């Protein structure tokens, strides 16, 4: 389970130190993709393989499926953390997520998300009340 919030710095070469807590789960490989709301998603290779399998089973006659899979796979980059636990973020993905030196890495269950720090603050500020309000919708009482 990937969870928590961390604040590594992006270096001048576009690398960041993955939080030590996540390194074992990502040591066999990972895929970095565009995420929703202009963040990046880091998938352990096994989780991305499952997602890719679902995408390949979806009907290509559906325009939404074509649009989603094009953007998902065109922006995907497979990698493996280096010996120091650093991950290189390709320039195209850094630009997509407007990443600067200050980033936030959050664990979201089966994946990580990498956010520009200012954008993450704006996102959480705007959705804090909705988080409280949605709990009953997302997890209805049984």
UniProtKB/TrEMBL annotation:
Record's keyword annotation contains Magnesium: no
PROSITE patterns on file: SPOVT_ABRB (PS51740)
BP GO annotations: negative regulation of DNA-templated transcription initiation
One GO term describing the cellular component: cytoplasm
NCBIfam families in UniProt: division/cell wall cluster transcriptional repressor MraZ
Keyword Repeat annotated: yes
Keywords from the UniProt entry: Cytoplasm, DNA-binding, Repeat, Transcription, Transcription regulation
Subcellular location: Cytoplasm, Nucleoid
Ranges where the SpoVT-AbrB domain occurs: 5-47, 76-119
Pfam families: MraZ
InterPro entries per record: MraZ, MraZ_C, MraZ_dom, MraZ_N, MraZ_sf, SpoVT-AbrB_dom, SpoVT-AbrB_sf
This protein's name: Transcriptional regulator MraZ
Chief site of localization: cytoplasm
Subunit structure: Forms oligomers.
Example of a GO MF term: transcription cis-regulatory region binding
The family this protein is said to belong to: Belongs to the MraZ family.
